[in-house]
Amino acid sequence: MILKAKHHFLLDPFFRHYVLWKMKRHFKSFSINGEIQDSGLPILLICNHVSWWDGIWTLYTNQQLFKRKYHFMMLEEELRKNWFFQYTGGFSIRKESKSIIETLDYTAELLSDKNNLILMFPQGNIKSIYQNKFVFEKGIEKILQRTKNNIQIIFQANLIDYFADAKPNAFLNLHHYTGAWNSTEIENAYNTFYNNCLNTQAKKEI
């Protein structure tokens, strides 16, 4: 049986305020880049996974732009160790287990509600921020096959630069995906988007 998200009436708002405080303390600046029109649909947010900060950056994006109920998938063993996250939107997945079907069904169920946002890291684990080729696992396609309603798929690419500052500057890049609902098309589109972000970032100057 999976561990489902439980948004606690005290812990959840505390965590959202903590996120903003944490970012202001550790970063010189953070900016959201990309023209995104909120369609009023459930959101599947697909993001690169480069650090511990990714969840905080995506939560910040949600707070600033979408204001949905925030959900994210975690390995069951990690969620049990970090129980706090279950009360801020975390739900479990156990790979190589029959319960993975339950997780896929639960994710599709969450995506039937326009008030929800689901964060996924489709490459499965943390990768270097400098890579330019992502290989996605098949989970996204299996979830979308179970999703019977319209949703909005958003790409997010998180990059950092220091320039002349002691603290890093975070750049949270967004793109609205409108292509086919299969893992190959989504993977190719995300790779194109991410490489465009890298090229744009390389041209930035202080």
Name given to the CATH homologous superfamily: Glycerol-3-phosphate (1)-acyltransferase
Strand tally, please?
7
Query: Compute the gyration radius: what is it?
Result: 17 Å
Largest sheet: 7 strands, mixed
Question: Which structural class should the secondary elements be placed in?
Answer: alpha/beta
Q: Pick out the low-confidence regions.
A: none
Oligomeric nature of the chains: single chain
Proportion of residues in helical segments: 25-40%
Polypeptide structure, described:
It is a single chain. A seven-stranded mixed β-sheet has the order 1-7-6-2-5-3-4, with helices on both faces. The protein has a single domain (11-202), classed as Glycerol-3-phosphate (1)-acyltransferase, CATH 3.40.1130. The protein has helices at 11-26, 54-66, 76-81, 99-110, 139-146, 183-202, and strands spanning 29-33, 43-47, 69-75, 90-93, 116-120, 152-161, 169-177. The protein is α/β, with parallel strands linked by helices. The chain is globular and about 50 Å long.
